[in-house]
Each structure stands twice: as C-alpha cells, then as structure tokens.
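Blinded run. Sample ID left blank on purpose so nobody reads anything into the name before looking at the predicted structure. Input follows.
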Amino acid sequence: MTRFVGMDRDEVTLPHELIPVDAHLEGILASLPVPEPIELRVADGLGLVLAEPAVCDTTVPGSDNSAMDGFAVVAADLAGASRASPVRLPVTGEVAAGGAPLEVVPGTCVRIMTGAPIPPGADAVVPVEVTGGTAEEVAFHLPVRLGENVRHAGEDLVPGQELVTAGRRLAPADVALLSAAGVARVRCIPAPRVVLMVTGDEIVPADRVPAPGQVRDSNGPMLSALVRATGGIPFSAGIVPDSRSALAEAFEANLGHADLFVCTGGASAGTRDLLAEVVAELGEATASRVAMRPGMPQIRGRIAGTPVIGLPGNPVSSFVSFEVFVRPAIRALQGRRDVHRPTVRARAVEPLTAPPHKRGYLRVRLTREGGGWTARPTGAQGSHLITSIAQADGLAVVPEDVTEVRVGEEVRVMLLVDG
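Blinded prediction complete.
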C-alpha cells in the first residue's frame, strides 16, 4: 500500500490522477460477495428480496361463497320480480361464514352472510339491502342474474400459480397474498450487517463536551441512521483512535458479524491517515482520489472476503459518499436491482458551480413550480457544513465537464428520499 506523498507541485491533484466516480462504484460493487438466502416466516420477510419464487399449492377461494350479506336463491325464481309485483320466498335457514351449507330448493331462500359457502341448489345472492318482508318471508323486488354476488372457487388463486417472483421485495400486500395461499415461510436475502467505524483522535461521543481541538461525533449517528433507512442493520465499532493497532483490533473484533465495513476518516494524505495501510495489511486496499466534490479521498478493499468502504471524515463528504457509494452497495447486498436513488430534472434558480474535472454534488432544496422542479442551493457548500445536508432534499449532480449550471438551465437531482 503506497501512501499519498508530497510532489512539490502547484496543484493538489492533477486531472489524470482522478478516478471516475462510476469506476470507483463499479469496483465496490464488484467486490461484494453473493448474498446467501435464509428461510424466514412470511411476516419476518417484509421488505426483503425473495431469493426464489413463491408458488401456490391450493385453491382460493376454496369453494363458492357469498360476496354479500343477503339471501341465497335460485335465480330463475326471481325472473319476474318487480316493485309492483315482488316475488316472496320463505326463509328456510341461515348460513354464516364458516358454517355448514343448507340446501336451497326452488321456491325458497336461505339467509347468508358474506364469505359463507353457497348452499347446494342456489346460484345467486341478493343483497339484504334490496329486499323487504319479514324474517320468515322475504320480498324480492328485482330479478337477479345467474352467479350474481357469488365468489367462485379458484377465482383468485389456483395450484401452480406463481404468487411472488424471485427478486421482488416482499410488500405488505404480498404478505397477505402468501398467507391466504397458506405459504408460511419464504427464502429471502437477509438485511446486510454493516459495521460502522469512526476514526480519529479528535472525535468524542456526541454527548460529551469537546475539549479544545476535539469535535463531537456526528458521522457515527448519521451513518447508522442512513444504513437503517437503506435497509441494513448497523453495528457500531465505536470511535477508533488513529493507531495501527487500534484499527486492526477493531476490524478483527468485528469480522464475525460484518457483511460490510464502512469507515470514516483516515482516508486522506495526512500522517495520521492510516486506514488504507491497515486494511492493506489485513487484506487488500485501494486508496483513490475520485473525481467528485465533496468526497475526493476514498478507500475500497476487503478483509477476509468482507468488503471495506472508507469515506472522508468531513460530515458532508461522508454523507454524499454514502449516497453515491455505500447506499448502492447495501442495496446490492440485499439482492435489489434498484440500487440508485431516483432522479428528477430541475431548473436552477441560482448558479450551481463545480470544480473542473470533478463531478459536483450540491445540496439543494427542490420546489415544484409550473409543472416542473426548481433547485436552489441550501447555502454555503463547504464539506464541514452539516446544515447544508440537513436542509437538503436533493443532490444536484454537475457533470465533470461542466463548471457552472447557469440560472434557468436544467440539472439532474438525486432525490434524498427513502424507498
């Protein structure tokens, strides 16, 4: 592992030293292991991706049943019914949902509840609201069509029918469908376990008053929330000092329950930026200067087959880097195909500037105007200004070959919404 060293030159980074954003993301995604499915109860699989299709082995409804509270009749008996000359039929019994059916002979009717089995001999149901008469004899004022208000056996599901396809995230409606079909367990891709490691001698817990030169940890809580919102399970390795032994110990202590390591800090060119060296000593690592702002210094690697993503320590850089690199990785580990945030086109209402040769990610507020979107920066865009992300609902993406999006021009905006 070769560290960045001083080159006695006028520019920090030359264009040819920059790695394209997409190339760095491709390297991360290529390093991810193939997730192993597990079997879960249907309710516990909510939000997870099915590893194999769920197939029906039953008939739903299991038998013809009533779609209404009313009366089961022989449709032909009511052919001449009208308000002027209603047909009156005696009630010979009642069938409730789950009850045993009673036979309906021509010239009679049976009171029936929604979901109750259609009695033998009956071929239609008349809703109670359009009848009259007494409890013993019902007056029917309208004819009824054959099969009206009858749910037929197998109308919804039949054996061999695919219920939920492989690769689909299990939604609440899918839980209902599988439960109705008697499917109790499914094979899903489990939520990835993401171990978060915040590095830096100057970092103290958020509930501690920092001494001079110290800063409260905002990256740890922020990344934990982002991982959870993305569908992963966050684990904190705590705040790790800038020490080779401390970093190595933190990795080794968490390898057993990590599907992915996400680290912040230690990714740049300072003498205390040791993360890439330690990852390389334990496995393999690549430290890159990615053509983006904020978030240029990035690390990717693996330790014992577990991928490691190293992000810059500045909170805004860490946030943007999570959206660009970590979120797609977590979604890929979930077996999801939609790994990227949705985007919209928006018109700039203030100039949006980015450095040459780098892809700019500017924090913006979106407003709906005249059938389209407008984008306005949230204020100063420094990588240390947490307010710029707290007030944003999108990231305006300025391409590498553009240094300014002028007022009135359109820009692509990543929506900072969950989903």
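Unblinding after everyone has recorded impressions. Helices lie at 21-30, 172-180, 219-230, 244-254, 275-282, 315-333, 387-390.
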